[in-house]
Amino acid sequence: MTAVPLHTRVDVAIRGIRSAAPVARRGGAGPSDDGHLLLGGAGSAVPLDPTSPYEVADGRLLLDGVDTGVDVAPVSRPLFYDLLTSDGVPYEKLARLHGKDVLATTVVQTCVRYAESQRCRFCAIEAPIATGATTRVKSPAQLAEVAEAAVRLDGVRQMVMTTGTSAARDRGARHLARCVRAVKQAVPHLPVQVQCEPPADLDVLQELKDAGADAIGIHVESLDDAVRARWMPGKSTVPLTEYDAAWREAVRVFGWNRVSTYLLVGLGEDPDELVAGAARLAAMGVYPFVVPFRPLAGTLAAGEAAPDPALVADVTARVAEALRAEGMRAADQRAGCAACGACSALSAAGA
Ligand code: SF4
């Protein structure tokens, strides 16, 4: 398998591929909305775009018809998608395959911040409820069933559980803890990452750990308050000091490099400040997972300009350097987006 050059990985992440993919999703939590492919053997979440200059022919990635030297293979549709829970819900509506071997679910598909004036402009968490692609709330028992089958039938190696934010002080973390406990009872060796906003009551982080979570993502998306106010009007009411306190407590509870955060590139922040902030996070044991912003259909940001690939490549390369300097490896997260890597170009930058 060929290594994917950083500039190609970034360009594909932004401009997409003219291709179909058996494993894909439309809408949902956070900034991702893609087909899942293997690029140079690595699981990669890539926009499927009929106008892209990239296409696939005979298992190779072509740019304007010219072979880039990068191998491409589709991720096959997993067998667990065709099963139903004992209460009659298709597994496919409860959890999805991400990358090549990650099981991902949104345990509560609604968000207290989803009013149009409050919503994160890059997010479409509630959209799949309207299309019937998923259910509002996943029960612990349903997720345990799906996880067991996904491991047994499709070789899933880790699980990511995210949640929309609730109005309660735990911000949805207690339902995550119940889901983790049930999954760990069914498949004790499956590493699980949970993702939530900083809980007002930080003791809930210990509850998540005690339930069996191996890692946690507390996603800030930007460290620039002006950018936060513009892109995340509701979420930016949680001050960065609360994120800082939650990250520190999470590192104490889960351990160094078992905590991560998303940083989106292309929201208008100063690139040097973004890189410096990522380096500060790495130094405190929090993995800064840098991902290019994409103006997805179904979000409030649809139609806005995608970031310049040169900017994304530059920031990604510099954050990868900061991660190497701290000895912070994505695989050591054990579970979660950093361990998966499909939505970022960090692995192509040597992180
Ligand atoms: S990086 Fe996270 S959101 Fe992206 S495919 Fe992997 S698990 Fe899913």
Automatic annotation (TrEMBL):
Domain of life, per lineage: Bacteria
Cross-referenced CDD domains: Radical_SAM
Cofactor(s), names only, from the UniProt record: [4Fe-4S] cluster
Alphabetized Pfam families for the sequence: Radical_SAM
InterPro entries: Aldolase_TIM (IPR013785), Elp3/MiaA/NifB-like_rSAM (IPR006638), F420 (IPR034405), rSAM (IPR007197), rSAM_MSMEG0568 (IPR016779), rSAM_sf (IPR058240)
Radical SAM core domain mapped to chain residues: 97-338
Keywords, in A-Z order: 4Fe-4S, Iron, Iron-sulfur, Metal-binding, S-adenosyl-L-methionine
MF (Gene Ontology): 4 iron, 4 sulfur cluster binding; 7,8-didemethyl-8-hydroxy-5-deazariboflavin synthase activity; metal ion binding
Protein name: Radical SAM protein (TIGR04043 family)
Origin species: Motilibacter rhizosphaerae
